[in-house]
Design goal:
heterodimer, A: mainly alpha, elongated, B: 394 residues, Spore Coat Polysaccharide Biosynthesis Protein SpsA, Chain A, 2 domains, 18 helices, 12 strands
């Protein structure tokens, strides 16, 4: 009885040892790859910071209104990008490390995730560009609308920003493969709906207001006794 | 040597008339009249007359290289080619005149040229009789700013016309900026900054009624970008100079100053409405440029009726200085920054238009002088903000 137990135990230990011996190189390779990717991430992060600092990316993005004004504790776009690059490199290194493990399930999962990383990154880039572009567009539309004398300038700016943001989000989600055709259809319905709603609002609800506004504008341009600000030479 | 700037057909007609007048008045000086083409560059009258074309192709005989940007919409400044051609032909003086019809009730050409040809003056800056609220960017921003920065009181510093002595022309031609900053060198603001920053003898001449361009006014935002972009750019480059300049002094003036009679100005209430609308909607942008105290003062102004005078001169001066600092530090993209100044300018213009409607010429002139005086009094504020844009933020 004792000897049988001993044999079973020894066989188990032997199997575990063999499995460990088989897995250990892969595990070691995973750890090494992760450590190596961490080192690469540090270098890449420093490189991004240096390039960002040299090209004054933060200042330029703030100048165009693409990034919010600097605040205490706010990392800023360059530091955020550096962290994102570092995280992506470490994650990629870890996934590559997982793929070398001699476990079919883990390897398959790692390979699928590795395939997904470029899509995810592209999605993030599209979203970031959309957010930045929407901020710049909002400011530009706002200033233009105020100078045109429109009363709803802020609403127009906000509308332009959200339209671009929705568009960028839809593109990013599609790039990431989230939502599939439902997303495209939903986006089409939403966008078309907004345009239709605006057309109906102007065409039906505000028809008279628009007519009066246009009439006033033409009358003003014809009235020479009281010239408006855009009818005099400012320089 | 004279360059005529403006629509080529008009310039051609003016060129022929000018040549005759110059020959009659300044003999034995042999006048050379060139025409500034739309594409920039200068064309002598002969190829224009020969081809019958208002804009001969670049590289054609008699066509000089392209010019740099000017402050007046639609016109490139022909200064660079004019200086080079003047030096090559040994001109005793060079001048730029507008092609549009001048006030023929006075001898405007004599007033422009004789201080240089006979009076020993190096630079004549013209001024014109205009309706009171016309050219308000010149009256309320450029002239007070130039006066504060360079210490000389020019009434209308940015214009198409100017007369320069040969000595000044040679000095300007030797300037490094033609090589280092070809896009800006030769612009109206560049010329004024260079001349006022030197020891050149400066005068201004009142040339009668303004030679009104046929084209209508340009969009206000674009005008602000074009004019103030140039002035703020020069301000940035000559910062070391203007921070040492003392109080302003008058320059020798030829001709009688004055305003064009009649002509109702814009409605002050509508201008002020544009300002209050801007204050309501553009506060997020202005808060990046203006310090809290100025924003508070603007809100107080918006709460008052336009009859109270619009923006006070001190506030207006600080606003312009803050925008110049934001232009330097690029807190906001420069075109957007200058376009966002439009509602503030209209708020100040509302006060000026109200003054124009209620005061006589002398009263209005005193109001203009008070604005310029406020700019000078606030110069210490400008220097503080310029040197420490983030720290000095009252």
């Amino acid at each position: 009885m004792w000897s049988q137990t001993k044999i079973t135990f020894l066989e188990a230990v032997q199997r575990i040892t063999q499995t460990m011996a088989r897995l250990l190189p892969g595990l070691l390779a995973t750890i090494l790859l992760t450590v190596f990717s961490a080192a690469v991430a540090l270098v890449a992060s420093a490189l991004v910071r240096r390039v960002g600092s040299r090209l004054e990316v933060d200042r330029r993005l703030r100048e165009w209104g693409m990034a919010p004004p600097a605040k205490v504790g706010d990392p800023g776009p360059t530091r955020f990008a550096a962290r994102l690059v570092a995280g992506t490199v470490v994650a990629t290194g870890f996934l590559v490390g997982l793929s070398v493990l001699e476990s079919s399930a883990t390897s398959a999962l790692a390979l699928r995730l590795l395939d997904y990383v470029p899509h995810l990154l592209m999605g993030l880039v599209i979203l970031a560009a959309g957010v930045a572009g929407s901020r710049a567009l909002e400011r530009s539309v706002l200033i233009g609308a105020v100078n045109m004398g429109l009363n709803s300038a802020r609403l127009l700016g906000l509308g332009a920003r959200w339209l671009l943001l929705v568009l960028a989000s839809a593109m990013a989600l599609e790039q990431c493969g989230i939502g599939g055709t439902i997303l495209t259809a939903a986006f089409g319905i939403l966008f078309g709906g907004i345009v239709l709603a605006l057309s109906l609002a102007v065409g039906l609800g505000a028809r008279e207001v628009v007519a009066r506004s246009l009439e006033r504008r033409f009358q003003e341009s014809e009235r020479r006794d009281t010239p408006s600000s855009d009818q005099i030479h400012h320089l | 040597m004279i360059a005529i700037q403006g629509p080529s057909e008009q310039a051609l007609a003016s060129g022929r008339a000018l040549t005759e007048r110059l020959r009659a008045r300044f003999a034995p000086v042999d006048p050379v009249v060139l025409v500034s083409s739309h594409r920039g560059g200068l064309v002598s009258l002969e190829p224009l007359e020969e081809h019958g074309s208002p804009d001969p192709p670049a590289g054609a005989p008699g066509v000089l290289p392209a010019a740099s940007q000017g402050a007046i919409p639609g016109y490139a400044s022909p200064l660079g080619p004019l200086l080079r051609e003047g030096a090559a032909r040994g001109a005793v003086a060079v001048a730029i005149v507008a092609a549009e019809a001048h006030d023929e009730t006075i001898d405007w050409l004599e007033r422009l040229l004789s201080p240089v040809l006979e009076g020993g003056v190096d630079f004549v800056c013209p001024a014109y009789r205009r309706h009171r609220t016309e050219g308000a960017i010149n009256t309320g921003i450029v002239a007070p700013l130039i006066r504060t920065l360079y210490g000389q009181r020019l009434r209308q510093p940015l214009g198409t016309e100017a007369a320069l002595s040969s000595a000044l022309a040679r000095r300007l031609l030797a300037d490094e900026d033609w090589r280092r900053r070809p896009a800006e060198a030769g612009s109206d603001a560049w010329l004024v900054a260079k001349v006022l920053g030197s020891d050149a003898r400066v005068a201004q001449a009142w040339l009668g009624a303004w030679p009104r361009p046929l084209a209508g006014p340009e969009d206000l935002g674009e005008t602000l970008i074009r004019a103030l972009g140039l002035v703020f750019g020069e301000m940035e480059r000559s910062a070391a100079l203007w921070q040492r300049t003392g109080p302003s002094r008058p320059v020798p003036t030829f001709g009688a100053e004055g305003f064009e009679p009649g002509g109702d100005g814009p409605d002050p209430a509508r201008l002020f409405e544009a300002f209050t609308r801007g204050l309501r909607d553009l506060l997020p942008v202005w808060s990046l440029v203006l310090p809290p105290a100025t924003l508070l003062e603007l809100q107080r102004c918006a709460a008052r009726p336009v009859e109270a005078g619009g923006l006070p001169d001190q506030t207006w001066a600080r606003v312009i200085f803050d925008f110049s600092v934001a232009h330097l530090t690029r807190r906001v993209e420069r075109r957007q920054l200058l376009r966002s100044l439009a509602p503030l300018y209209l708020g100040w213009l509302a006060g000026l238009a109200h003054t124009a409607a209620t005061l006589d010429d002398a009263g209005f002139e005193a109001r203009v002088e008070a604005t310029a005086g406020a700019f000078e009094r606030e110069k210490r504020y400008l220097i503080g903000r310029w040197r420490w844009p983030d720290e000095f933020n009252p």
